[in-house]
Amino acid sequence: MQKFTITIIVILAVSLAAILAMQYCKAPTSVQISYVPPESSPGLHVLFLGNSYTFFNNLPRMIAGIAASDTINPVKIQPGIFSMDGATLESLWKANLAQNMIRSRHWDYVVLQEQSLTPVVAGLIPAMQDAMTRWSRLIQTSGATPIVFETWARKGGSDWYDSTKYPGLDLGDPDKMQARIDGTTNGIAEQLRLRVIPVGDYWATCSKLKGLPDLYYEDGSHPSIAGDYLTALLFYRYLTGHNLEHITYVPAGVSKEKAQLLIRCAS
């Protein structure tokens, strides 16, 4: 299978949430566009729309690796991705390129990942709802199923909750931030009758378990390899309906013992 990856620079009209993300988050600044041509054999074709939370450790490729490693029910997941550091669903819509990717071929699923601060900033929620409405209509018209990627709260004890450092954010604490993310994300998804993968809720529970590796990158926002592994396991489970007992893929940087803890939590 040949993979074509094109990296380009695109100028987008970004909202306040994207500006906040680029100001506060230390992550690679790039635009990722990739497309894997379908093969004749059966498989799931999944397009991921988002930002650095999606491409930081190449989440789509990790999901594909997990799916292929299932020793009982292997699944060929062929991913595509359009993401930009700090992008909101609104700014991705205005880029048009992602819309063209949806129209260019058949996808089984299209994953919508909103910028992580948008659901907790009251003034940005209407734009989030409008963007999710536009995306869901386009995706459903194309014959694919939209899926909402629920993100996680910032790491507890990090500077993100320091009101003197970030007075405009007022995130409270991880539990309060996650509750706000859930309320906004799930509320809009319920109105639109969209399926949600509750990644943030699993992070909130799993991160408190003894012995689990740190799910966060050093900035307290982005995922570590372990964090993305947990996220990828959840996506595999939700996309296929398969259990995780026979997964053999473990990414570099995660020990087999820690991987088993993450698999148990994702199950």
What does this structure look like?
By secondary structure, the protein is α/β, with parallel strands linked by helices. The chain has one domain: SGNH hydrolase (Rossmann fold), CATH 3.40.50. It is 41% helix and 13% strand. It contains ten helices and seven strands. It has helices at residues 16-24, 52-55, 59-68, 89-95, 97-104, 125-142, 174-192, 199-206, 225-240, 256-266; strands spanning 4-6, 31-35, 44-50, 77-84, 109-113, 145-149, 195-197. The protein has a seven-stranded mixed β-sheet with strand order 1-2-4-3-5-6-7, sandwiched between helices. α6 (125-142) links the parallel β5 and β6 (145-149). α9 (225-240) packs across α10 (256-266). The protein is globular. The two termini are 31 Å apart. Residues 1-31 and 33-41 have low confidence and may be disordered.
Topology overview:
Blueprint: E1 4-6, H1 16-24, E2 31-35, E3 44-50, H2 52-55, H3 59-68, E4 77-84, H4 89-95, H5 97-104, E5 109-113, H6 125-142, E6 145-149, H7 174-192, E7 195-197, H8 199-206, H9 225-240, H10 256-266
Parallel strand pairs: 3-4, 3-5, 5-6, 6-7
Antiparallel strand pairs: 1-2, 2-4
Helix pairs in contact: 3-9, 6-7, 9-10
Features of the shown structure:
267 residues, alpha/beta
Q: Brief description of this entry?
A:
With 267 residues, the protein is of the alpha/beta class. It is 41% helix and 13% strand.
The tally of helices reads: 10
The count of domains is 1
Secondary structural class: alpha/beta
Unreliable segments (pLDDT under 50, ≥5 consecutive)? 1-31, 33-41
